[in-house]
Amino acid sequence: MKWITRERPKIDRIACPWLIRKFIDPQAEFLYVPFREVLAMADQLGAIPFDVPDVKFSHKGAYCTFDALVKEYRIEDPAVDTMAVIIRGADTDRHDLAPQASGLWAISAGLAQHFTNDHELLEKGMLLYDALYAWAKYLQHEKHTGQPFENLLVNVFNSHLKGKRIPAWAKELKEMIQDHIDTNLTLKEISRGLDISPSYLSREFSKYFNDLSFGEYIRQQRIEKAKELMRNGTYSLTDIAYLTGFSDQSHFTRIFQRHTGETPSAYRKKIPREK
User: Fold this and answer.
1) Domain 166-275 homologous superfamily, CATH
2) Least confident range of 48-52, 142-146, 192-196
3) What rounded mean pLDDT belongs to the chain?
4) CA-CA distances (angstroms) from residue 198 to 59, 191, 269?
5) What start-end ranges are recorded for coiled-coil regions in this protein (predicted)?
6) Residue 6 pairs with which residues in a beta bridge?
7) pTM over 0.90
8) Hey, CA dihedral for 56, 57, 58, 64, is it positive or negative?
């Protein structure tokens, strides 16, 4: 089976060939051609086009081509599911989806810079995804600081960090989040406003925000704001969902229950109303 996509691959166009070879067709052949030639060459060679607009295997909404292949071929593997989130975050510049996403982007960009031949780049990239799969399947809950002396060093370092001043960008970011809790903030938009690299912000965020990722912190703040609004009897749950940035009441109920263990209506019945 032949598969064809646009030249100069970085993330999706290497991750997808890895997935195809490992789970779909071990003998698959991959062709990289200029963007404008993909569909014509696909017809000419009887190849399956992927990761280009208006074809079956491509981006759909927030999901990337890797996700489309997993869904179409019904690949049920927890390690692949873990990889899919990382690949999606790296490929769509949503580094808040997984802490590994910014690292995958950095390594992929570096490989593409180092290897100018697309098939040589594919060969090296396959090793990258073999390693990521092995980590996701066997090692994702392991810590590099597994030895007692390493943990001691980390504890000393963390204690030192706690005594350090919070950087100005972190203070400004906290205010931005509080002021825009009802809007869909993205890490990319915020990094632009702070004039900070998105990958740096994604990497450093948890140090100054309760060891939470950007997405986790946003959800926590929305839930806390919702609890505050529930104490005021003038707001319906639909109003509260809107005022705290959830897409609808159903989304609000689902996230609230995940964080608190009970529905908003059940929670509201237990708290005294503000007079």
Assistant:
1) Homeodomain-like (1.10.10.60)
2) 142-146
3) 86
4) 22, 5, 41
5) none
6) 33
7) no
8) positive
